[in-house]
């Protein structure tokens, strides 16, 4: 079956092709044309995207849940539900993300995710590129919404147990690199080709320099849950700004980071080293109100902002299409620049950029059709329109 998306504003890697067409066959992008191809396959399905934008499918490296579901529920239904919700908002590749909990609860979540990825359920399981382990090796003072009672010092034996429980599906680990035991864990993870991110951390400038030597190459939700910048103690933030090998996540719902702070991050890191994430949690997609987590903790959502009873932010209700909208509207990015932050950069971090992250012939047909208000019209994964 051939699918031709025509009359579209196609968000290519370095420009927007106005009134172009994109041809998909056998799960791959076959060609992109300035106009409709001269010769159409007899069985081609044609989709008129006049007035709409076709973006590469979004890649979310940090997402806990949504629409009432959370990875920590540790059930196939919960994982399916969160994938379905975020796919409906344009995400075609994601890393379901754990949070600090008991050793047993984290193990259950990792096992459930591995089982789901190995199941025959299609097409949603193909959206999952691995698991992001966030916690429990985090700093007490910068824990944010992470559970204080379950925080642990980094332990290599425990890390190895979780790698086994995940079936080797852990792709990214957030750790506070200043903690005792962090070095051995970080070095082992890098030996396994797992991305290591500094987060929920009080690391100093010197701590972060050392951590980068050990293998830390990423920053979890930059500005949030970390030591800030001071001119006499520039902290991990300035070390990350100045290291061209370090990439940084940004929750750009305009609540977690002021637009000016986001602009500073882009100026310091450049468009190739910043990634948009959602850090979405269970209440994403649900009405404002009070919610209880799987661990019995209370969350309050007001105007879409999730907080603990203490008033601290506790994840977000953001979706990737809105993150892109904010990046364009609040930061002045071009559509193809925003697509770099939302698709190509995270795909590159995962080592998937040869197949995903941009619209180009030969790449996987992962794409999202948005109207001018950034509302999702259709989503395609591996050449199949998703029914969401």
Strand content: 25-35%
Contiguous uncertain segments of 5+ residues: none
CATH homologous superfamily label of the largest domain: Metal-dependent hydrolases
* Number of helical segments with 4 or more residues: 9
Q: Terminal Cα separation, in Å?
A: 21 Å
Tally of separate domains: 2
- For this structure, the CATH topology of the largest domain is TIM Barrel
Portion of residues in helices?
A: 25-40%
Q: What's the gyration radius in Å? A: 20 Å
Task: Give the strand tally.
Answer: 21
Principal-axis shape = globular
Order of helices and strands: EEEEEEEEHEHEHEHEHEHEHEEEEHHEEE
Q: Report the biggest beta sheet as strand number plus sense, adding barrel if it closes.
A: 8 strands, mixed
GO molecular function: N-acetylglucosamine-6-phosphate deacetylase activity
Keywords: Carbohydrate metabolism, Hydrolase, Metal-binding
Protein name: N-acetylglucosamine-6-phosphate deacetylase
EC number: 3.5.1.25
Give the arrangement of secondary structure elements.
Layout: E1 2-11, E2 16-25, E3 28-33, E4 45-48, E5 53-56, E6 58-63, E7 65-66, E8 69-70, H1 76-87, E9 91-96, H2 103-118, E10 131-134, H3 156-165, E11 170-175, H4 182-191, E12 195-198, H5 205-214, E13 218-219, H6 235-242, E14 247-251, H7 259-269, E15 274-277, E16 289-292, E17 298-302, E18 305-307, H8 320-331, H9 335-349, E19 367-370, E20 376-381, E21 384-385
Parallel strand pairs: 1-4, 1-5, 6-9, 10-11, 11-12, 12-13, 13-14, 14-15
Antiparallel strand pairs: 1-2, 2-3, 5-19, 7-8, 16-17, 17-18, 19-20, 20-21
Helix pairs in contact: 5-6, 8-9
């Amino acid at each position: 079956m051939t699918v031709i998306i025509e009359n579209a504003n196609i968000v290519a890697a370095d420009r927007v092709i106005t009134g172009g067409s994109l041809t998909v066959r056998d799960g791959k992008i076959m060609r992109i044309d300035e106009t409709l191809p001269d010769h159409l396959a007899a069985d081609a399905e044609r989709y008129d995207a006049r007035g709409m934008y076709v973006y590469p499918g979004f890649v979310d490296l940090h997402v806990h849940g949504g629409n009432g579901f959370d990875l920590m529920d540790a059930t196939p239904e919960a994982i399916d539900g969160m994938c379905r919700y975020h796919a409906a908002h344009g995400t075609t590749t994601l890393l379901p993300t754990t949070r600090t909990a008991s050793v047993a609860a984290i193990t259950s979540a990792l096992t459930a995710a591995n089982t789901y990825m190995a199941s025959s359920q299609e097409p949603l399981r193909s959206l999952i590129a691995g698991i992001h382990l966030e916690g429990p090796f985090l700093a007490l003072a910068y824990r944010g919404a992470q559970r204080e009672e379950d925080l642990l010092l980094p332990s290599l034996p425990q890390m190895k147990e979780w790698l086994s429980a995940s079936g080797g599906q852990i792709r990214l680990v957030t750790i506070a690199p200043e903690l005792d035991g962090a070095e051995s864990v970080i070095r082992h993870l890098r030996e396994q080709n797992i991305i290591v991110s500094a987060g929920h951390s009080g690391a100093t400038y010197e701590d972060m320099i050392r951590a980068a030597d050990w293998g830390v190459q990423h920053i979890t939700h930059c500005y949030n849950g970390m030591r800030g910048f001071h001119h006499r103690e520039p902290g991990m933030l300035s070390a990350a700004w100045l290291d061209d090998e370090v990439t940084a996540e940004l929750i750009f719902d305009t609540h977690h980071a002021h637009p000016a702070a986001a602009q500073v991050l882009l100026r310091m890191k450049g468009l190739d080293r910043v990634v948009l994430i959602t850090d979405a949690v269970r209440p994403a997609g649900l009405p404002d109100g009070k919610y209880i987590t799987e661990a019995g903790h209370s969350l309050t959502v007001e105007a879409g902002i999730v907080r603990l009873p203490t008033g601290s932010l506790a994840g977000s209700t953001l979706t990737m299409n809105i993150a892109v909208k904010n990046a364009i509207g609040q930061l002045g990015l071009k559509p193809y620049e925003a697509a770099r932050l939302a698709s190509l950069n995270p795909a590159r971090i995962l080592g998937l950029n040869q197949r995903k992250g941009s619209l180009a012939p030969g790449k996987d047909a992962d794409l999202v059709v948005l109207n001018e208000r950034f509302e999702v019209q259709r989503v395609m994964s591996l050449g199949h329109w998703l029914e969401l």
